[in-house]
Each structure stands twice: as structure tokens, then as C-alpha cells.
Amino acid sequence: xxxxxxxxxxxxxxxxxxxxxxxxxxxxxxxxxxxxxxxxxxxxxxxxxxxxxxxxxxxxxxxxxxxxxxxxxxxxxxxxxxxxxxxxxxxxxxxxxxxxxxxxxxxxxxxxxxxxxxxxxxxxxxxxxxxxxxxxxxxxxxxxxxxxxxxxxxxxxxxxxxxxxxxxxxxxxxxxxxxxxxxxxxxxxxxxxxxxxxxxxxxxxxxxxxxxxxxxxxxxxxxxxxxxx
Length: 229
Prior knowledge:
Blueprint (H helix, E strand, L loop, with lengths): L5 E5 L3 H13 L3 E5 L2 H10 L4 E5 L7 H11 L5 E5 L4 H9 L4 E4 L4 H14 L2 H4 L4 E4 L2 E4 L4 E3 L4 E3 L2 H12 L4 E3 H8 L5 H18 L5 E6 L3 E6 L1
Parallel strand pairs: 1-2, 1-3, 3-4, 4-5
Antiparallel strand pairs: 6-7, 7-8, 8-9, 10-12, 11-12
Helix pairs in contact: 2-3, 7-9
């Protein structure tokens, strides 16, 4: 792997969390450590991660709930669960939420490294190490610089416009859950934030209207869907 993987690690046990953090960094990974699920979700929405390692039993938000929230806005990022339990039902629940693998504590650090490498071999490079540059029809969108390059003129997007369009692009042709998107970008899915998001969706439609193949559909009772015909 040419690019250093950026790993989001969520572990509420301070000793194990620091041990894992140090070990993964020593192996050349970039690592962000969160001590509960809620902090991990906030970090996930503030940065771009290539791989997630989540303890299942955590305060604020458990690993399963965290994975469910992330899968609503990112279907592709690999997720590896860590748990003190070994019950079959827990493993089945983890895999049903889109887990790529599952490790039961205690485990060796070398085994963890082997699992990460195995998952990364299974996942297509284009899915995991994607750039923040998207082609939306004939319109180029650079999420890193928040620039939208239309034929008329380049437009600098606001932070929320940028976050919203990036989620739509990463989930092209998939339904983007309304409540999960609100929690990811606004931090709360209340009515007022919902109205605000509707305004941003309308702005994005106007910015993208020069290409009539692009459509941001309202999916009643669910959310939005970016379709490029």
C-alpha cells in the first residue's frame, strides 16, 4: 500500500486503546483513538478514514450502533470489531451490520495486523484509498478544496454544502438516510436542522443543474438519492 492507511480506533479501555494505538503507529499507520462510540462518530465525520476498528462494548454509543450509523453514510469503509464476547449471536449481528471481520479478546497484535492486511487485500483499492475528487456527470467536484467546477465558473462550496455533496457522491445511486445525514453533518436530526438541510439540497440542485443528467431525488420517508442518468 503506497498510501498510509488512516485508521479510526474506538476502544474505551485506556490501556488496550493506547497499546493498540502505539502498535499500529509503529507499523506505519495513521491512527485516531476515540474512547467511546460518540467521540468516534464525531471523528469519523470530521476526517477521512480508510479503516475502522471498533470495540463492541463502549459507553455513550456501542460499537454496533456506531457501525450502523457509519454504514448509513459510508457503505464501503472496512470495519473490524473487537469484543470480549465470543457468542455466535454477537458475531452474526456484527456481520449483519456490515463488519468485515471480528476478533475476540484477548488477541495478539500480530494477528490483528494480519487481519487488517487480509481485509485490505479483499477490498478494492479504488474503494478504500479513494481521492476526494468526484466526477458528477460532467461536473468536477473536489471535496478537499470545496470546489465545484461547472462550465459557467468554479464555485467554492460552504462547509455544509461540501459535506452534503460528498456524502451524496460517495453513495451515488444509493439512498442517503435523512436522519443519519443530519446527525453526521449537523450533529442533531431535529426539525430545524432538517429544514436547513432542505435549503442546502435546493442550493446543490441549482449548482448542478447545467448537467441535466444529474438529479438529487427526494425519497419519501427515507432521504435523498444522487442519480446520474
